[in-house]
Predict the 3D structure of the following.
Amino acid sequence: MINLNYTLFIQIIVFLTALWVLTRFLFKPVINTLDERLEKTEGLNKKGKETEEDAKKKAEEYEAGLKEARYRALEIRDHLKKDGLEEEKKIIRAVVKEAKDAVEEKKGGIYKDIEYVKSELEKRIEENSRDIAEKVLGRRIE
């Protein structure tokens, strides 16, 4: 049978005192330390997620910028190519015109030479005809 005497009350008081001392000096500091550690871990996890999201955004922005730069480079290349082709056409037109002008100039010179030779030949035809006739006839013609 259970006897209720003063030792039970002393044990209850010792138990409650030990519980109060352990709670105040052991459990609360340990729990506080664990709570702080949990808060720090959650804070670091949150900060890590934010950093990861920020890195993803920056990577997307970088990719978009790179894509834009490539597009602009292609536009510039096409524009320069178009300008180069136009410049090439201008140069070719100028060279063709210069060549045509040179050919026309040479033709004009040749026609002048032909006219000169014709006039010289016409002058000499009469003399040569007379010389030939004199030689064929064997006498002098006046």
About this structure: The CA atoms of residues 9 and 15 lie 10 Å apart. The chain has one helix and no strands. The two ends are 188 Å apart (CA to CA). The helical segments are 6-137.
